[in-house]
Amino acid sequence: MEFRRGRVALWVLALFLLMVLLYLSWTYVGTVILGLFAYYVTRPVFHRMLHRTSSRTAAVAASLLLVALPVMVLIGWTLIVAVRALQDFGSEGTLGQLEDALAPYFDIEASVEGLQTTAEQVIANPGQLNQLNLGNITTNVVDVLSTSAIILLNGALHMFIALVIVFYLLRDGHRIADWARDTVIEEGGVVDTYLLAVDRDLKNVYFGNILNALFTGLLGAVTYTLLNVFSPEGVAIPEAALIGLLAGAASLIPVIGIKLIWVPVGLYLVGLSLFVDPGTLWFPAVFIGVSVVVVDYIPDQLLRPYVSGRSLHVGAVMIAYTLGPLLFGWYGIFLGPFVLVVVFEFARIVFPWLINPDRPVTDADSLAETDESERSEAAEPASDAGERESSADSTGGPDATDTDHRETG
Predict the structure, then answer these.
(1) Which InterPro entries does the UniProt entry name for this protein (predicted)?
(2) Could you tell me the maximum CA-CA distance found in the chain, to the nearest angstrom?
(3) Residue 338 · residue 33 · CB < 8 Å
């Protein structure tokens, strides 16, 4: 009786710890789902790197670097273009044009002379600072700077947590899966088959996001570059290739997507056309139309569902991508497909087994979709194979070489 009471107490403790873990995961669900997305994006690169080194830690570090390198190049390119644009704006000709445009509405020269006079008076007599009533201005500036610093630090902290999740899932995911099979999951059983199917679909869905972003970036770069060929004199898309690549990167953001890129650029072209020649307004109109139809709508609504879920219904994937951001916010573009995959595979594999426990548990879609090339890509080197258990039996369980599908951790 005491032994049973002890087991009951431990079960209660286990359920309590599970609830705490679920609560923490839901509190930071955006960070967790972002880390899960980055894990599935990095995993194919990790398996290739694992063939070239005997150290899993080195393979993870190299994989993260390879995935992050294009992002760093794009950011660096953007910063260089921004600095160059500021330098061009600071040239005498540009400032002179701006001065001429604002002259009827704003006396720039008088304002500059007033600022210089005030600065000279403050330098001569610093006590005059009390008479300038800078208290409210200083307070507002400090509030803005402190709020911006908090937002940046909070974002950096969440990115760090996501990277930690990716790192340990790549390095120790197989150990988590093996522990689960040794402890609570029967290998080849209904839960094991269900988790493998979820793992396969999540890999397709999340990697499809990156393929969609790459396609959108290339399409935008080519489209905007060709559009510049027909641009009127004095009105052109600035850094057309970079704008296209930034549009592809912005397509990962839900709902607004590449509108963060083409809307400001479109407004800039409209203002530039009005300044140079109102007769050139047709070019900003063409740019906006091409951005909406070709670069925004086609990849997001037509291509993304096909590249994101080969074993899932196209309409269901499209609904998940549409409703996810509306229901959950910025991370809904990752959480929406995750919920779809979990529910779909439960209905396909687990629910029929609940209705009829005697029916055999198989995942024919997974076996048909996993060809020999994918198996060889996912296979781990011999130096690391000792950490894994043997394959499932011949009753239809997953192949042992398909480690890419077995890492459900």
Answers:
(1) AI-2E-like (IPR002549)
(2) 93
(3) yes
The full set of domain ranges for the chain reads 28-88+142-406
Amino acid at 308: S
Identify whether the C-beta of residue 365 lies closer than 8 Å to the C-beta of residue 395: no
Q: What residues have CB less than 8 Å from 132, skipping those under 6 apart?
A: 118, 122
Round to whole Å and give the CA distance between 47 and 53. Answer: 10
Q: Round to whole Å and give the CA distance between 27 and 46.
A: 29
Quick: pLDDT tens for 199-252. Answer: 888 888 887 777 778 888 888 888 888 988 888 888 888 888 888 888 888 877
pLDDT single digits (tens) 40-65:
888 888 888 888 887 888 888 888 88
- Cβ 405 vs Cβ 196: under 8 Å: yes
DSSP 257: T
- pTM value is 0.64
Burial of 360 (0-12, 13-18, 19+ CB in 10 A): exposed
| Residue 23 C-beta-side C-alpha neighbours within 13 Å | 6
| Backbone angle region of 239, left / alpha / beta, with phi > 0 → left and psi within -120 to 50 → alpha | left
Write a three-state SS string for 153-186: HHHHHHHHHHHHHHHHHHHHHHHHHHHHHHHCCC
